[in-house]
Amino acid sequence: MKAIGGSGFFAFARIVPLVAALCLAACATKQVRVDQFAAFAATGTAFTHSVDPVLTESFDASAKANALVLLQTRDDLSPTDRLSALQQADDDLNTRLAILADLKRHLGVLQSYFDALASLAATNAESSGMTAVAQGLFDSLGKLDGRIASASIAGQSIDSLIAPAAEFLFVSHQSRVLNRELRQHATAVDREIRLQQAALQALAEVYASDLAVLAAKEYRDQVALPFAGPGALAADWAGTRASLLQGALASTSIAAAADATARLRSSFVALVENRLSHAGIAALQTDINNILTAIDKSRAARAADQPSAEPKP
């Protein structure tokens, strides 16, 4: 995954020629408003890039936990029942894959919509073409909304988990086309962010459950069974035990993503109301970094679990 972050996300201030005090104040105010949208769009891009691998990671955990359950029950089933159980498990995982694919597409469209808002903030020209682009992206969000909202994760309808709507205090921005776009669609776009948040929260619960299944097996194989057995314990047995116990308490990447989505939503409301500050953008970037840190820890843990390759003679 391409590195995310850097000074590009936080280059909000621009040098304004000192002509006169009144002109400086007016220009600075207008420029801050434009930069708010540019900074939010850039951070939204970073958020999208960070969440994509999280969704993939959540599926991997579900597939592994599901396979473990199948293996544990295999001996108790007839050949016919084994095939039926496998088919049902495959159907469930394919359904999950379809939901994740829609969520990834939905995130991508949201990112493009935020970019369109940044472009609208920088222009007042009706002929720029960005109004039609924003409308097309908004329509695409609506089409994906229905499929995602009606889907279920672990028996819970995503639609039933969506948080209450925000009430916007609309203000006048410099761009007339931006003002019109926000008044027409900001409330609906807020719902799309809440939809992502609901889905990620539901996936976070499933992910935690899947990790618990996998962690229980790992603890049994690496800690409990060796301790109960007659042989000598490995030199790192105590360290392995402590590591596995601590890992059960660690925050997951998808839980961090759900938290970041809540911050993204509050930042969007602040953006529309012209009160999004540099500190607010920095806080959102911190949440994104928390996602990336959790992903790195998860990848490092998986790499440590992989047996080292035997050197070839």
Short recap of the structure:
By secondary structure, the protein is mostly helical. The chain has helices at residues 21-74, 79-121, 130-150, 176-228, 237-247, 253-272, 278-305; strands spanning 152-153, 156-157.
What report would you give on this structure?
The protein is mostly helical. Helix content is 73%, strand content 1%. It contains seven helices and two strands; from the N terminus they run H-H-H-E-E-H-H-H-H. It has helices at residues 21-74, 79-121, 130-150, 176-228, 237-247, 253-272, 278-305, and strands spanning 152-153, 156-157. Strands 1-2 form a two-stranded antiparallel sheet. Strand 1 and strand 2 (156-157) form a beta hairpin. Helix 1 (21-74) packs antiparallel against helix 6 (253-272). The longest helix is centred in the first third of the chain and has 54 residues, at 21-74. The two termini are 34 Å apart. Mean pLDDT is 84; it is low at 1-32 and 308-313.
